[in-house]
Amino acid sequence: MKRTLYWVTKDLRIADNAALQLASQSNELICVYTIDKKWFQINKFQSKPLGEKRWQFLQACLNDFNQHLLALGQKLYIVYGDTLSNLNKVCEQFQITDLITTKVPGTDENRLLSKLHTLNPQLTINRVDQFTLFTENSLPFDVNNLPASYSKFRKVMYNIAIQQPSSNVNTLPCMFQSAPSVTLYELESSPASIIGRPKQGHIFKGGEQQGLKHLKQYFTSENPSVYKEVRNSLDGWENSSKLSPWINYGCFSVRQVMQHIKHYEQTVESNKSTESLYLELLWRDYFQWVHFKVGAKMYQFKGLVGSAPLTTFYPERFKKWCLGKTPYPLVNACMNELRHSGFLSNRGRQIVASCLVNELSVDWRYGAAWFEEQLIDYDAAINWGNWQYIAGVGVDPRGGRHFNIKKQTNTHDLNGDYQAKWIDKSNNTAYLDQILDSVDASDWPISPDSATVSSVAVSASTISPVSRNNVK
Ligand SMILES: Cc1cc2nc3c(=O)[nH]c(=O)nc-3n(C[C@H](O)[C@H](O)[C@H](O)COP(=O)(O)OP(=O)(O)OC[C@H]3O[C@@H](n4cnc5c(N)ncnc54)[C@H](O)[C@@H]3O)c2cc1C
């Protein structure tokens, strides 16, 4: 008799969901999504793990998934609090024999599963390998021998076949008779009203249904044919695929995305742009496997290379960077977009991350944690992996990236349209003076008489010396 707990995490979909397929073979089933109270608390990097924009997106995803489960005679239970004790209570209350969940690289999740197993030694834990393009078994190497750079990984993986998406689940086993005692609430049958949508910027609507609609729209447009030429633009819905928020909550699988790329290549066009899109998905996979391999090192100051960057924590610089109040208008525009909309282009992310590390000499982990709070498409491996890469402590064999802000402004926003769009209209300079005076004026890298805070550029001599390669 299989009494199964399906712990739903980054797999909020019915299609191509091998974990749900496996759960469908149980005798009795309960589907649970855990919301940890820590997600809403300020952490040691002064940010919250879950900000408002992603929380709204997630609620829509949960509602959508619940609708699908209801149609199959099941429902999604949401439990709130301490994840380990909540899962443990569900296991005890229903005498769970099997736990099914999607295998993700997060260190918290993995630690939690081993503790849960210690508390419930009878429990069989099935971690379903479906978060990446390739399963661990299909890698031609052991994860511990993962190639040391992305280019090596790409060479090895390029021609390896990717598994086709699986068929949809049509029936699910019956529910347990009573609701779990830890239930905070059941999702209503009507979709949650989404409040506080950004007035500007891209709108992402959570859930499998909306995700598949967007996936279809992107691949029935001509945008995949020109992706490579436009992907570095700072603005524009059509300049990149905008698939990331749905991929990261598993509203569709990366294999489904790959299927669309292949179909586009077979029926419309196969060119450098369609290849480039695939190569970005491969980057995503690479960061996931790096995270599987290195575990907690993903979040350490010294990163994967084991040597500390020449940066530290300056509260005022960090605060001004978060609020888009640095001396760099392009950086400010990007940070305003991120804060107001929960999204930022890849080039924007690279520019602001480089600025925090190289111009402001701030510990990269504070920036990564701020991104974690703000981004709708936050993913642990991709976010912390990219930050490490820019800070020179990650998988980059060339050691760090420094983006020349003036050059980036001339290349990507010569007419200033993007900066005008995201300028902070409040123009609250009194607020700036207050911060400058009251926090730690001495740590701000502009000498007090050199400029007003809104001036365009800081001369190199006013910046703490940080040796960096690869100024772009
Ligand atoms: C400092 C920094 C932090 C980042 N944090 C995140 C994050 O938390 N979550 C996230 O999904 N992406 C992150 N990225 C990568 C990238 O910026 C986003 O994936 C991309 O902007 C999402 O938009 P898109 O779906 O239109 O991407 P597209 O350009 O259309 O790319 C398609 C897909 O490829 C993958 N991809 C694209 N660029 C990268 C990359 N540089 N590294 C790994 N995978 C990539 C994503 O899954 C993306 O959805 C970060 C990049 C930087 C520089």
Main traits of this protein?
Cryptochrome DASH, 7 strands, Serine Threonine Protein Phosphatase 5, Tetratricopeptide repeat, flavoprotein, binds flavin-adenine dinucleotide, Rossmann fold, 18 helices, Crypto/Photolyase_FAD-like_sf, 472 residues, DNA Cyclobutane Dipyrimidine Photolyase, subunit A, domain 3, alpha/beta, disordered C terminus, chromophore, FAD
Layout of helices and strands:
Layout: E1 3-8, H1 18-23, E2 28-36, H2 52-71, E3 76-81, H3 83-94, E4 98-102, H4 107-119, E5 124-128, H5 150-157, E6 174-175, E7 183-186, H6 208-220, H7 223-230, H8 244-248, H9 254-267, H10 272-294, H11 315-322, H12 329-341, H13 346-359, H14 364-374, H15 380-391, H16 405-412, H17 417-421, H18 429-438
Parallel strand pairs: 1-2, 1-4, 2-3, 2-6, 4-5
Antiparallel strand pairs: 3-7
Helix pairs in contact: 3-4, 6-9, 7-10, 9-10, 10-15, 12-13, 13-15, 14-15
Bound molecules: flavin-adenine dinucleotide.
Tell me what you see in this structure.
The chain has 18 helices and seven strands. It is globular. Strands 1, 2, 3, 4, 5, 6 and 7 form a seven-stranded mixed sheet that branches. The protein is of the alpha/beta class. The longest helix has 23 residues, at 272-294. Helix 3 runs parallel beside helix 4, helix 9 (254-267) runs antiparallel to helix 10 (272-294) and helix 10 packs across helix 15. It has three domains: 1-131, HUPs (Rossmann fold, 3-Layer(aba) Sandwich), CATH 3.40.50.620; 208-294, Alpha Horseshoe (Serine Threonine Protein Phosphatase 5, Tetratricopeptide repeat), CATH 1.25.40.80; 315-462, Orthogonal Bundle (DNA Cyclobutane Dipyrimidine Photolyase, subunit A, domain 3), CATH 1.10.579.10. The structure holds flavin-adenine dinucleotide (FAD). Flavin-adenine dinucleotide (FAD) is lined by residues 231, 240-244, 247-248, 277, 280-281, 283-284, 287, 345-346, 349-350, 353, 371, 375, 377-379, 382-383, 386-387, 390.
